Amino acid sequence: MNTESKSPWWAGALAGVLAAAAGVATGTAVAALLNGVPSPIESVGNRAIDLAPPMLKDFAVEQFGTNDKPVLIGGVVATLALLAAVAGIIGRTRPAIATAGVAVIGLIAVAAAAVDRTATASRALTLVPSLLTVAVSLAALAILLVTLRRTREAAPAGLLRRRDFLKAVIGVGALVVVGGVVNSLYGTAAAVASRAGIRLPKPAVAAPPVPAGTQVDVTGISPYVTANRDFYRVDTALRIPDVPAEGWNLRIHGMVDNEVNLSFRDLLDMPLAEHRITLTCVSNEVGGPYVGNAVWTGVLVKDLLEQAGVKSGADAVKSTSADKWTAGTPLEALTDDRSSMVAIGMNGEPLPLAHGFPARLVVPGLYGYVSATKWLTDLEVTRFADFKAYWTTREYDAEAPIKFSSRIDVPKSFQTFPADRVRVGGVAWAQTVGIEQVEVRVDKGPWQAAKLGTEDTVETWRQWSWQWDDATPGNHTLTVRATTKDGDTQTSDRASIRPNGTTGWHSVQFRVE
Ligand SMILES: Nc1nc2c(c(=O)[nH]1)N[C@H]1C(S)=C(S)[C@@H](COP(=O)(O)O)O[C@H]1N2
Ligand SMILES: [Mo]
């Protein structure tokens, strides 16, 4: 084929990208309308998450934090766009090869959908969006390539044909917009409506008011109770599972005398308890943001397990979510005197969707990955020897109590203070044990006792403050360390996130003027 009759490469690339976009838009819109069916991009993303080596996940959390999901989706979309552009460029001269290429890319999405653990619909239904994506992409590619070729062949009347290509481009663009809008409107519509209709009853056992002096007076310190919108979010869910309370069921089974099934209504009718509990993520770096304190409303797990009757020999509970994520929790942590609960409320509201609506587990003293299952649907009483949970198949320990730690909230990095007002503070936590002392030091100076806020409970973090009375101008480093009521003091040895959480001291640089 001679080059003169070839369309420019960018027109081919555009045709390829638009064809893929049309397919993806269709698949995405249709997925949103089908209950429990992930979109093709999500399924590919989910596969990437589940296949990612633990090291890569550590890197992603470190680099992108809570933005790891948009970054992943962006990566999938960019890769797809690149491949589609290449297919389109080739398609100008070799349409058969371009078609085969797009079909192969599409089949990867179909395969990802076939094994997507987050799908709750039937397998057949789960394949519909990706199959549609392939079909629409191929059809759109064929149309765009033909239009493109005609545009070239009709060179004298090129203007007219160019208009055809433009029309095709606009048509496909419109499809993309419609797909996006439908998805954003219907993605979690059922859960949103369900949550809006829920009134939490007054708890039978209300949390006592926060004691005076718990919140210390330091400008810029994180609030003692973390607002829902500020509460950290960590999970593997690319799309928040759409789980309306109506139809939700919690199954308690395994090594029990009688299987128990509870509806959301059943939970509401049980005596509800309210407890402040500080959650912590194993991925929290020393001084990091993945820790938060909220008032949780729910039913104590020990009451539910008592109803089921735990058989002897069991030592664990495997919890599963609507998106088929799993955690393994020591039975003891769910039955001793801590306030482990199936929570349905967070800070006086039904659980926000991102935090597990309609119900989740909350267990004081254990990292979230071994205890805090959101969108909870299943509790299986079992033995650690008999199962592995999501993160324990990925190089994390099966048992993971929270390592006690402390954090400087003020100063922020490189904050400047006037010499007569160097007032600093932060939080320290040792869930189920309690904080005995917090010390700070400036540069390599002596450790000095910080002033502790009033203790709320041993299941929550504790604030601290310190004032540097004879502050010297210049650049300084503030370091903090905590001591628990068991008499253990934080080690300066740095441990990494994997396999069971970080250790080390938090330091922040600041300036006095
Ligand atoms: N279904 C589900 N539940 C989950 C997770 C998850 O990936 N999927 N992540 C856990 C982890 S690692 C943590 S730290 C907590 C975080 O809870 P939050 O997002 O409400 O702060 O949820 C836990 N529950
Ligand atoms: Mo976590």
Automatic annotation (TrEMBL):
Gene Ontology MF, one: molybdopterin cofactor binding
Coiled coil: none
Pfam families on file: Oxidored_molyb
The keyword Transmembrane helix appears for this protein: yes
Residue stretches spanning the membrane: 71-90, 97-115, 127-148, 168-186
Alphabetical UniProt keywords: Membrane, Transmembrane, Transmembrane helix
Gene3D superfamilies, alphabetized: 2.60.40.650, Oxidoreductase, molybdopterin-binding domain (3.90.420.10)
Disordered as annotated region, ranges: 484-503
Limits of the Oxidoreductase molybdopterin-binding domain: 239-391
Comp. bias regions, Polar residues: 489-503
Annotated GO biological process: sulfur compound metabolic process
Identification of the protein by name: Molybdopterin-dependent oxidoreductase
Species name: Aeromicrobium ginsengisoli
